[in-house]
Amino acid sequence: MNEIIEIKKDKELNEIKETDTGRKFRYKVAVIGDGRVGKTSLIKKYTQGSFKKEYIKTLGAQFYTYDKKINRDKIRLMFWDIAGQDKFHFLRPNFFKNSKAAIIVYSLEESNFGRESFNHIMDWYNVLTKHCGEIPIVVFANKVDLVDETKLDNSSIQDMVNKNSFLGYYITSAKTGEGVTKAFNAIIETLNYKILISE
What is the pTM of this model? Predict the structure, then answer.
């Protein structure tokens, strides 16, 4: 069910707990991009291993949790799937708040929609940094199953990644699963690295 969800208290979004068997970390990750680029499908593919072909619009935001163990530490990622439609723009400041990393998704579709979703990457980046400051960002180039991957020109997205110091970009398909695990793991590994160097 898609619904506008209640904002959790700040201290519940990002915290560290010490236990006898290791530490527990919890981080909020914002997943943003235009509507219909596949944000919800990507999250569900990674967290649940599922994919649904029909499109269901996200209303406001919804979130999914994913637990991963690294050595003795347990990391819980809370992926906040934020609606891309303009009519929900007034909700974004609250939904972005306290995000420790972000994923910007665009579509590789060879259409006006696909090109516009690429052109809007910097718009999403600017809104995100306005509310979150400089946080780790990964770009997902989604729906590769709908194009001929051998003919893709990645020079534009690579230039954008280099210019803005994004962590990188990943070619993904929520339908086939291509690149999904590697792309999401890039966020987890970065957050874990930040933990290690802060010690």
Answer: 0.84
